[in-house]
Amino acid sequence: MTEKVVWYVVRNFAKSLGIEKIALHDLRHIWARLCQVAGGELEQFQFFLGHVSVQTTERYLGSERKIRETVNDRIAIESAE
To answer: Residues with Cβ < 8 Å from 8, sequence gap 6 or more?
Structure first.
């Protein structure tokens, strides 16, 4: 399975949810948000995201982005705040 095939599947699934535009970086945010909601350790997903400091990861998760309003709502991620 190639990268193009995976991306094709992701885009089509997003469209089936009513999400017309999605970028690879949006998937990073979704993954990080899911880890946070699931109660994962901040240091664990800091490592996976490749952030040098925990503060960067905290800012990354705390940033108000359209993705929180659209994608997270459509896949029923509830806020941990």
So the answer is: none
Measured distance CA(79)–CA(73) in Å, rounded: 9
Of 66, 42, 69, 67, nearest in space to 56 by CA? 42
Sequence-distant (6+) residues with CB within 8 A of 20 are 14
| Inter-residue contact 65 to 29 (CB < 8 Å) | yes
Question: Over its length of 81 residues, how does the chain's per-residue pLDDT go in tens digits?
Answer: 898 998 999 899 989 988 888 888 888 888 888 888 888 888 888 898 898 988 888 888 875 444 444 455 555 555 544
Planar angle of CA 56, 61, 62, nearest 5 degrees: 95
Contact 61/33 with Cβ under 8 angstroms? yes
Backbone angles phi and psi of 48, in degrees to 5: -65, -30
Residues in the chain, how many? 81
